[in-house]
Amino acid sequence: MGVPSRSIEAAAGASFGVASMVAPLRRVAMRRPGRATLEADPARWHYAGPLEPERLLGQFEALAAHVAASGAEIEWIGGAVDDDLADDDLADSIFTFDASFMTPGGAILLRPGKALRRPEVRLHEALYARLGVPVVGAIAPPGVAEGGDLLWVDDRTLAVGRGFRTNQAGIDQLRGILALLGVELHAFDLPMWNGSAACLHLLSLVSPLDRDLALAYPRLLPVALHALMRERGVRCLEADDEEFEASGGLNLNVLATAPRRCIAIDGFPRTARLMRDAGCEVTLFPADALCLPCEGGPTCLTLPILRGERPDAHPA
């Protein structure tokens, strides 16, 4: 028997469940940078030059403070600076969005396309065991899939990007798992862009801001995905070329903490203005030492565990 489907909003008393990119963020997993990140070899991990540890840590803590201020409870994944997993050689593990994926019925353990990241999955498995969150499936070889390629279009529709980090075998496995949850999967081919070493996910090209609004880069967005979003009533704000190129696509990496409330990277004023003009409340944080050199933004640095209205929430 399949796991029963849930609505887009979490049930009263729920401790897990996600079927939206924009419903209020109530519980989220993060991982503080440890020595593996702070002392990472840039060539090996495809980072843009040597990192600045003190500034990187400061910017991470600024993001975490904004996430907490949004009302979300942060669950910390083990292995930070002060414990015995600090030297686990998982530099990218601060980007918690990629190694697993939350659904209405529980978590799916993914299998990153970047081979250096595959041991991260055990950290997520341990997290879910500690929190009592069921695991409803796992991606097995030869499949690969990363969270950055997964996008909720609505509470019954998931878009997946097929590219260097997520392959057809992974998509086929995801489709089978999600079918048991009553979720339909639509796959879209991603462009080559800067090649296999660069990190181009589906969420590098589009970020939902509300149920009917998203931020997108139209030059690289799959045509069929754009058509599907329009069919479902989602309007796309079109980011400009200059800031997309300057940020490596990270100006589009926006974390929605509630409908039309989001956290974004500072330094890209036209992108921020575009969202604000559409009625979004935008919180900016400095990320030139954290996100830009490591190719991951606020969405990548957070793993939603629970999204939905709180039981005591009332419409304004």
Question: What structural keywords apply?
Answer:
15 strands, L-arginine/glycine Amidinotransferase, Chain A, alpha/beta, 9 helices, 316 residues, disordered N terminus, three-stranded mixed sheet, 22% strand, globular
Number of domains: 1
Helix content: 10-25%
Topology, number of strands: 15
Integer-rounded radius of gyration: 18 Å
Distance between the termini: 40 Å
Report the sheet-strand fraction.
Answer: 15-25%
CATH topology: L-arginine/glycine Amidinotransferase, Chain A
**What's the CATH class label?**
Alpha Beta
Regions with little confidence, pLDDT below 50 for 5+ residues: 1-9
The 3D shape can be described as: globular
SSE ordering? EHHHEEEHEEEHEEEHEHEEHEHE
Average pLDDT, rounded to a whole number, is: 91
Q: In what order do the strands lie side by side in the largest sheet?
A: 2-1-15
CATH architecture: 5-stranded Propeller
